[in-house]
Amino acid sequence: KYTKLTVPRLRGACKKRRLEQSGLKGDLIARLERNDQECSSGSSSASSSASSSASSLLPYGGDITEAMRHKDATAIRVLMQNRSQGSLAPPLPSKPPPAAASTSISQCPICNEARADVEVLEHSSPKGDISNHAACGECLSSMVSTGSSCPWCRDEVVWKSLYGYLDEFKSDIDRAGVRGDHQSLANLLAHWQEFEMTRSKSDLAAFAKDLITDSSLASHVSRGINRRSPWVRDSAGLWMRLYAMHADGEVTELNDAEASRLSAVCEASLDIFESDHGGHEDFVAALYDQACAALLSALFSGSATVTLASLAKRAGRLCVDVFDRFYSNKVGAKAEVRNRLNIEYVTAVQELVWGSAEADLISTKFFT
């Protein structure tokens, strides 16, 4: 849900935030220091105690199922990041970048302070004169943190343009694809999760369409499809998510070439996995985790899940098939896949993808 704040309430929230910032920072530092002291106290506590201590610092005690039950997007995002392997994509900035030097000073209509960084809010569907619908950088930060709509006309604000997030995401796709870095490619979906869980549907649709229609990215994707490049396989979750948005009618007005390329890259990500899964059982877990993550992102942003549920089931069947063909006789392979799979993801999508626990091929194969 995106908060709709009146100007007076938003003004009060901004002032309250400024007053609380130092206190919040101090509390965080204190918590981290306490945790460091516990870790270095020299006591030979059992690993289960250490795990319990770490979990206590996480939302809902580290229980992602409980966070999902409350539909707490912020907590889900933190827990997803904590569960993921390796370094994750950096979170979206919590504060807008510094404004360019300017000699123009104007009054922010929200906090009433004279500032050099007051800008008109970029609206998704502007109607009439919005020249006075503005905010300073600090008030923008407060609005972003609450997903607030414009306090004057209630229109959704296009936050993506404030941070250049789209260009950064495109660059990450290009760099990861060129390097063939499996972890970086998988982390592209973590970028998307950050965006999807904190942005409005109009932002999501605009962002997805810009990615799909970007000419330089299109060329890169086309080369990947034609060469059957492994990076297409390793970023499968992202292509599933984008394709599903188009298939379910959330991204529209694509031309035939764009729609065809999007369908082709989604198909290629699964086809390449089937013929060249990566040479290790870890890739089996990685594909299903990506399919689940894409589906969960859609589920908790209120987007359509029909196509993604179908793709996740297809990915699950493919994972079981590849495992049976290549690893059924390998000692320890099943345990390796089980340890790599995110059990919270598997459980969370079970009913939506398979209909029941008994019909869940992934759960039956690796957890029973």
Task: Explain the layout of strands and helices.
Elements: H1 7-39, H2 47-56, H3 64-69, H4 73-83, E1 106-107, E2 114-115, E3 119-120, E4 134-135, H5 137-146, H6 160-163, H7 165-179, H8 182-198, H9 201-213, H10 215-227, H11 230-234, H12 236-247, H13 256-275, H14 282-301, H15 306-326, H16 333-340, H17 343-354, H18 361-366
Antiparallel strand pairs: 1-2, 3-4
Question: How is this structure best described in words?
Answer:
By secondary structure, the protein is mainly α. Helix content is 64%, strand content 2%. The strands form 2 sheets. The chain has a two-stranded antiparallel sheet. The longest helix has 33 residues, at 7-39. Mean pLDDT is 74; it is low at 1-5, 17-33, 38-51, 84-102 and 159-166.
Q: Share of helix among residues?
A: 55-70%
The low-pLDDT segments are: 1-5, 17-33, 38-51, 84-102, 159-166
Largest sheet: 2 strands, antiparallel
**Order of SSEs:** HHHHEEEEHHHHHHHHHHHHHH
Binned strand content? under 5%
In total, how many beta strands? 4
Classification by helices and strands: mainly alpha
Number of helical regions: 18
Q: What is the topology, as strand order, of the major beta sheet?
A: 1-2
Provide a brief overview of the structure.
With 368 residues, the chain is an all-alpha fold. 35% of the residues are buried. The protein has 18 helices and four strands.
